[in-house]
């Protein structure tokens, strides 16, 4: 029993340590030197992450029908989290437009993809990408509609991530084989995305604002708790296998996405309050995620 517990602790450590180390590196680097990640983040969103998505989805090992149920479950968690926590906005005396997006849209890119890959191996990368795509697509549709009902969804077709997804789906369904040189190129570009996401998260955390710590603390607790409470009955209803159930639990417990703050800032929807929710949620995940992994692994 002790040997098994040690083995689980070792796996949890090996999963979490690289994530914390890279995030910490970004944090301490930005504390010592003025660091503007805006250009790097834009390149990551426009080049490296689309390359990662296309690389995974165009792979011969990627079989999209295997992930339909997981995608439905992920979408349900995002949407139901908003519905379940809607009444909490009145209790906490915070605007729904401010509080609900961080509760619904999680850090499935910066944290979710590397976490799932490190915890479950490279074979889990396609599932991690599918979860990221579902969350991201809903964020740029439903999430933008929550903040601005006049948002034009046609603008989605201009986003490199969406274009890479569509191209990957076409490649997957067609059965085409990517030439070796292009495969190497896509793989190399995609490998930049995950470490850069984590480093950027660390840089962003230097701007922690504890002014609204009470709402931030409630968000840090309610986001993973609500997701997990929804995930358990949902997995049974959709009859997910054990592997996909584990992926879904990790997805459900992820903290709010940093993108929530950027969008709130763009629409001037109490960005400082959203920043507290996002950053305190990501700090709390340093405790919540290892505990969850100990349970799963």
TrEMBL record:
Pfam families: Mem_trans
The keyword Cell membrane is annotated on this UniProt entry: yes
The keyword Cell membrane appears for this protein: yes
A GO-annotated cellular component: plasma membrane
Membrane topology value: Multi-pass membrane protein
Transmembrane segments: 12-31, 68-87, 159-178, 184-203, 215-238, 244-261, 273-296
Residues annotated as signal peptide: none
PANTHER family, sorted: AUXIN EFFLUX CARRIER FAMILY PROTEIN (PTHR36838), SLR1864 PROTEIN (PTHR36838:SF1)
Family that this chain belongs to: Belongs to the auxin efflux carrier (TC 2.A.69) family.
Protein name as annotated: AEC family transporter
